[in-house]
Amino acid sequence: MNSASERKLKKLLEIFIVSTRLGLTSFGGPIAHLGYFHQDYVRRKKWIDEESYADLVALSQFLPGPASSQVGIGIGVMRGGVLGGIVSFIGFTLPSVLVLILFASLLHTFDLSNAGWIHGLKIVAVVVVAHAILGMAKQLTPDMQRKTIALIALVTTLLIPSTYTQIAVILMAALIGFFIYRRTVISDQSISISRFPISKRLGCLSLILFFGLLILLPILRETVNSHWIALFDSFYRSGSLVFGDGHVVLPLLEQEFVPTGWLSEEQFLAGYGATQAVPGPLFTFAAYIGAVTNGWIGGIIATIAIFLPAFLLILGALPFWDSLRSNPNIRSALMGVNASVVGILFSALYHPIWTTSILTTADFILAAFLFGMLVFWKLPPWTVVLAGALGGTFIGYF
């Protein structure tokens, strides 16, 4: 094996280790995941800068599928090409998939979703997200105009809580940013170039495959009497048509599988409870449904099917992203978009993360202590996660 291959293998192994650690510790849903990603990929590893990270988050908000998983895939692609994206996805997703396939019934039996340590991990998510947003706000809203855009985005998304509201807010922020900053952004201004190591040809092929499967799978389902094609189609379609986090996909999955008798309402709710008790993306709920209906093979196929649209879309969009964001007009719009992302994340920090995690004075005290560990004492994130779990367990006794 030559030195170039060894370096590539070493880089892929590093991506897998970091993403797996995140997959084991990232509780709290997609917005919390973005906070954990920011902590590891931006602050600690410095694989991506603040501006590129915010751009990637904004791009993922536009695309259907799990936004946090798409951000993780995008960072993996930047670091190690297409293989890096695949490895990053596997590392982040595999822990929760295995837990849901093997232990969903056990989690439901003992009702671990209500355990004190789970509540402590939710409080950790509050701290991690708050830290990430404060860092992004300092970088992305330096002037009064962008602070105002962020505030308007925060208020709007709280008053009208909807994924479509978020998309509308981002579009409006892009328009406002274009008109405010188009005369101040010049073409030779320095900008960090991400240089995603994938070709535009591969991007086009990925987009063609995405739309081709979306059209052909329902046709195959009707013409070929195959249970596996039907299973793959149901999950692929659900993953293709959902904007936002995993909670949004739940009604689609329930409609696909409960009325058809593939699983009961009780089984569906039990799996949802188990999914809340494990780290990683909520889309891995598909692994539980697949395992209930078709064993561990069904769980793996369901996971691939529901995440495949997100993977194809992010691969399709990334090759064109740098050429767009280096354009002065696009960059002026992105200045507004990045400010709106800060506001949207602040909104999500309050609801649902804060409102479902900080329920008592003791919760707030624990959150303040964990924030001090992370920000003031600069302790490793895993120690904050462990302290949060122990603190939540202690609070649960009172």
TrEMBL record:
It is a multi-pass membrane protein. Keywords: Cell membrane, Membrane, Transmembrane, Transmembrane helix. Pfam families: Chromate_transp. The chain crosses the membrane at residues 12-37, 86-107, 119-137, 149-181, 202-220, 296-321, 333-351, 357-377. It is found in: Cell membrane. InterPro entries: Chr_Tranpt_l_chain, Chromate_transpt. Its main location: membrane. Signal peptide: none annotated. Belongs to the chromate ion transporter (CHR) (TC 2.A.51) family. This is Chromate transporter. It comes from Siminovitchia fordii.
